[in-house]
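Appendix B. Extra example for self-study. Work through it before the problem class; the solution is given directly after the inputs so you can check yourself.
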Amino acid sequence: MRYFDYLRKRIFVYLIWGIFAGVVISLNLLIYRYNIHLSEIISQITSINTNAIKIKQEIQEIDAVKRFMNEEFGIDISRYDSDSYLLIMLDAMKRDFQNAVFTVSSPQYSGDLEVLALNISTTVHNNRSILDYVIYLDSLRLPDFRFDEIRLTKENQGILMNIKGSLILPISQDQGASHG
Amino acid sequence: MGEILSISIEGENAKIIKAIRKGKTISVSEYLTISVAEELDEFLAREPSKELFVTYDFREAFHDIITIPLVSKKYQKKIIESEIRKTTGLSQFSYIYRPVRERVRENKRVMEVFFYAVSNYAIREIVDKFYLNGKIIKALYPGVFVVASLLRDMGGVKMGITGTGLNKIIYLTDEKGVFFIRNYESIDEELSEFDIQNINMTMNYCFQNFRINPDAVVIVGNLCRNVTASTIPAVPILSKVRPSNIICPDDRFAEYFLPISALLTPSNSNILSGDYRNINIIDHLIKYATRTFAGITIIGILFIIAQAVDISKKKDHILELKQKNKKITSLYREYKKREDLLNNITPLVNFLNRPFDDIHGLFTGICSISPGNLEIKEIHVKRLGDHSYSALIKGRGYDESYSMLRDSFTKYIQELRSIKGVSISSQILDLSDRSITIDLTYRVQNEVF
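Solution. Structure tokens for the complete assembly:
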């Protein structure tokens, strides 16, 4: 007895519904994934919107720092170069300490810093002058002056002051790459 | 519960009823009598009900009482099947059986079993008509078993007479069902003298063979109204009236008692062959699987619609967000421009944020101390490491007395100690040449720019 002869119609209907169900399930999966994808896009765009506020704040901060650098140190950040700035500052020091003898060696690079070793010799006549030199050098921030040695020796004609130290300045990232 | 369709094929006619079952109550709603040859196929084609009960009086049915050895129920069925095969000579058949009684024969305990068998070919001739019209037969009952099922609730052993046209059947039944059947051809469709004689003869036969006498002879249906016999059988003759759980007019019950009673007939009277039962099972499985698929499809489509609505909303939302984000592009360009600037600023800011080694605190302190009668000849400050310096102070005292010299030196030392960050490492006052040597360390008081 061939069961198929009796069940042909039902099997046909069963197969048709089976195919429908399969197609609908596949469509569901596709649409579900697409929907999830859209949700991700929305969350990304929303996060971009949130980031926009942060970016705006950051731009303002960068501008503020740029202004500060210019006003406080006379540094134009967009054209910052530690080599030239160091020499400008050295010239300024020489102008300010006209009676001092400056001995300078070549700049050295140590990590992300440029170091210019410096020896300042001068004769001062009172404590006030000593403090003027020390406070002046101490107050330097860009570049920073690092004292290695200060020797004060009383002589007949005054106090011989010998300062050994170095001017230190961070190098820009472009310079860092070139100095390797 | 939906309507149940029941068909009884009686001679050339098919009697059809539709009923609703509520618990044990059958409520008949439709009655129809059609010609089997001319109208049945058409009826089956247009009838929406898929499942039905069929009652049929098989003319080529085999029924008898066989004797089998007493065995466990596990083997009983196989032995009965084998015995039926031997008795009837049928190779493929379906059958109904019931054990009648145990006996001792030749010092052996044996079981007498009544069987009713029909060849599968005969079943197929009836059943195919329905299946090929897309119907499923839930049960196929021989007519005599359907009538007998009506007498069950009467209790005791009853003899019944039924039949279609001239073909009459006398049967013996009790609470467990039919256990004896006799077919004969009557001379009249009504209950005649000839039928009464046959009833009496059958009763005698049963008494001789089973030692059983029925309590009464029961007639059902239209036969109750068509009695022409003037004599009565040896036991009372009763008419079976409509049971209270069957709701229909009495005259309808008399005419349609077979298709109606089929709905109350126990399932062990179903003679549908194994193949059709298998088809029924497969059909049920396919039906439920199809319904499941249909359900999944409908739910899936609803889900797709819901998702589509959601997607459309999200797309609109994305468009809205994109409009807002147009400003971001220019903002981002501005930020990109400043990115190089940031590369230059970062090291400078980090540099400014680090602690500075300011030494002016030490010098301000030393220079502000009045040495009195001491003369400071040399101050030598050297870096010791990060944030700390050593200082060597040399000089000479000019006091007249040693004690005054000592006082001046002590005072100078005390003043040096008062400078923040200073700790004296050694202090030497050499009285021989009045020289002083002071060794101190200075710890930078960290300042951040």
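Self-check: The radius of gyration of chain B is 59 Å. If your reasoning did not lead you there, revisit section 3.
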